[in-house]
Amino acid sequence: MQAASEILDEVIAAARNDGPPADAIVTRYFKTRRYAGSKDRRAVRELVFRAVRRSAEPPASGRAAIIGLADDLPELAALFGEERGPAPVGESDERSQAGAMPEWIAKKLSPLVAPNEWPALLERAPLDLRVNAARADRDLVLAGFPAGEASRISPWGIRLPADSRIDDHPAFTGGLIEVQDEGSQLVALACGAADGERIVDLCAGAGGKSLALAAAAPGAEILATDTNRARLAKLPPRADRAGASIATRLLNPPNELTGLADWAGRVDLVLVDAPCSGSGTWRRNPEGRWRLTPERLERVIALQARVLQLAAELVRPGGRLVYAVCSLLSREGAGQVDEFLIRHSSWQVQETPVDAGRSDGAGRLITPAYDGTDGFFVARLGRPC
Fold first, then answer.
1. Is 326 a catalytic residue?
2. Where in the sequence is the domain holding 53, given as residue range(s)?
3. Per-residue pLDDT for 297 more than 90?
4. What is the pTM of this model?
């Protein structure tokens, strides 16, 4: 409890100051405390994330978060004042308030995400794998994971318990699988990538969706781009392991289009997995509720609109643009596409070829409660010939 309180102090500070994620803070904490056994580390980690999930807003302190958690767990309340543990709770002590959603964020959620769905946004996520369809059959790979099951929607997916480790599994080292949430797999599936196409993954990051596209269409020419050198640098070794041919290109804002002049107007498919609030991934990063502010949301919405405009310049006549955000907020999803279509009235909404989610404006909204995946909005738009 005392260790969890100390870690939570760092998590709260990081959330307020754009610091490292909670996972990284926990890992760093124990690197300097190697005397802690594996059971202790798991117990501390569990307390930290239970406290984060419990509080919609950042608590006053890590101690306040643990006191609030003890209000729900009497077995914890009895341990205050124990040797090496937290000091006894006094009348002046603050405690965190339980809640799933900050009120201002709740007002911006898609109408499809009703309050009865909120608890699912914070449940601990399972570990999802994507089988490399270009090199392996899912059923054969699944046989190597006794605790696994085929994903419900994605034809490429395998679901494992949350605590599973696969780093040293032969299927992983041999490039037959990648860690990828089923919702993210469905975004790649919605692209309908085909051999012979020219494809740009415009906000590729470390390349998870680029790899999925390459597996779905090994004969496609794929260019993965990003403005973050460190993230993009992770893709080539992943592509080598998967046996995928993917070119990468670092873009320099604010002149990204200059760096893509040779692809402008010549691309069959542009995937925009845009920077966003991350509200669809709170199962994995529950402190994301603490990091998001109205000002940050406005900045990311403006960035999404700019990236969409850049993507439109790349699509050839008759080509398509797939827009996705791991967000459940209307303005980032359906609202963003509505604004794009106002600016590009000749573009057409295409049916999203994914049997998942619910219709939300011009696209589909995939949610933890309804689909059992991370939350995503995805829409497919066609440029007229």
1. yes
2. 1-83
3. yes
4. 0.94
